[in-house]
């Protein structure tokens, strides 16, 4: 039996995925800074790998941002709204980031700018291309925004190239599939080449923040977008078994098993300091875990489904909306906690810092969303609507809050 579903609408369960990813990264960072990940033999290994939320964000970005491009390509239409796309992307990432950067660095000083970190490099998200600035800075995890920004720039170029190659309606879907596979294989081949070259862990840690080394994670989300667009073009029909609660349970169980293997069976240290081989193996596992988490959320279009109940309830959706602010602010509050308590890094109590960071990050995230992000995005959408041609496709407007990747 096959049941129709609308696959090109706003998917509320993805907001829950963002919330889950942001909170996982927050918990991971608290565990790292307090030293809890190394002290606890039971929970430590799992909290040390909670930065899997990074891969969830990348998979989400790949899916959400590529969906309008691939939808138009499979329908035989070109995507001409690149300037509006760029404006929406910049408004999504920079206003809230600049506010957080200014407050964290110059008011809270948690921490402030210190040499060799440059205000200009961090403000423009160029710090990842300088080996001296990758680690540290007022918002240390902002290196991941630089990776996102590179993906924003890459995506229209890639979509244009694929559209140029796949002009025949018969071959468009095949070309899209081949393209995603090539991206995934190419990224992994690049990492394999870096490992084979004997690249140092420090150097690999830097280049591993660059888009080509993380493109395999985005490619999985892009592949999901290709599948969804293909189903949509075929009449919006998705096999019922893929949307069943049993499929959701199976997908999430697979994610939990792979996460357990990553946390306990690969011999990874509890600290975020990894060798190049350890980082590559870990990220490879993370990407599959992330895909298995996201797929049920994409297919959870109908009420009463497990994925929708878990990820699309009011609390999960709201936390997803403010997740970018949680990401931007949480490490600053950890720094403030250590300053006010006088605790030393790696020797601080886990639970008090967790509660402190969680409460303040949610408050800051809400303020960021209502006072900065939503107004900026609303202005961007209004300007796009005024400029859109009569034949514009509503699906070209990407989802609110495209994913950002916290870690560091």
Give an overview of the whole structure:
The protein contains 16 helices and 2 strands. With 408 residues, it is mainly α. It has one domain (2-396). The chain has a two-stranded antiparallel ribbon with strand order 1-2. Helix 7 crosses helix 10 (211-233) and helix 10 (211-233) runs parallel beside helix 12 (276-299). Mean pLDDT is 89; it is low at 1-8 and 390-408.
Gist?
With 408 residues, the protein is mainly alpha-helical.
**Low-pLDDT residue intervals, each spanning 5 or more residues:** 1-8, 390-408
**Helix-strand pattern, N to C?**
EHHHHHHHHHHEHHHHHH
Number of strands: 2
What integer value in Å does the Rg equal? 21 Å
Taking strands numbered 1, 2, ... along the chain, how are they ordered across the largest sheet?
Answer: 1-2
- State the helicity in percent bands: 55-70%
Q: How many separate structural domains?
A: 1
Major β-sheet annotation:
2 strands, antiparallel
Structural class: mainly alpha
What form results from the Cα inertia axes?
globular
| Residue fraction in strands | under 5%
List the helices and strands and how they pair.
Blueprint: E1 2-4, H1 13-34, H2 36-39, H3 44-48, H4 53-74, H5 82-108, H6 119-123, H7 143-165, H8 172-196, H9 201-207, H10 211-233, E2 237-239, H11 245-264, H12 276-299, H13 306-311, H14 314-321, H15 323-341, H16 350-387
Antiparallel strand pairs: 1-2
